[in-house]
Design a protein that fits this description.
The protein has 271 residues and is mainly α. It is built from ten helices and no strands. It holds the Pfam family BPD_transp_1. Keywords: Cell membrane, Membrane, Transmembrane, Transmembrane helix, Transport. It is found in: Cell membrane.
Length: 271
Amino acid sequence: MSAVPVTLTEDELRRLKAPARRERLFRLASYFSPLLLLLLWELSSQLNLSDRRFFPAPSAIAQTAWRMVLSFELFDHIGATLRRVGVGYAMGAVPGIVMGLILGLSRPVRRVLGPIFSALYPVPKIAILPLILLVFGVGDASKFVVIAIGVFFLMLYNTMSGVMQTPQIYMDVAKNAGATRLQTFRRIAFPAALPSIFTGLKLAAGSSYIIIAAAEFLGARSGIGFFIWASWQTFAVSRMFVGIVVISAMGYLTILALEALERRFVPWAKH
């Protein structure tokens, strides 16, 4: 018995295609909305609707950025900031992950150390920067330490929550199967915590650039934060906007790289 072909009216076809058409429109809007914002900014500046002293035209900012690229001035500051963020990030992420795994797996350790970390976590990291400068000096060591402190707590709590959210039935099955604590950690706890660990890594990356910008305001002679601060002091607003855009792009690209690593090493997580 052959199937009877179903004929749809034009109105029914239009309704079926509507969701896909809306999705394409939203995708195009997401691509062009930043360009539209820049165009409106440029027009308002050219028509003197905004004060160019505080909001120079995007074309002027682009010209300033191009001159800095040709002179290699910008790359020196980018390299200094990336070095400080990279070292401080590693110094905070590794012990944060290790401590988070320990606290997540051990209730006694969590009861002893948990209140201490809970009391220290809300302290603003920039608020203790003067103390860190006093102890470690105005060199790069103080920048490493203040970034490491901020990253440590984010990694600690994200890793601990990932381990604690592991379904208890998995732990019970491993225990009944005679798995050792090391096997339970390698096969169950750590893989279960990986999505939360990568969430913490991405949050910590954004926080690292926020912290380093503020730290370079005070005690640095290089870096994007120092560049923004020096531009503000000389009222070079176009240069200041270049620094803001550059550090934003650095943070965005870092998070994109972490997301690529997450898709590679945590394929079972929802992306």
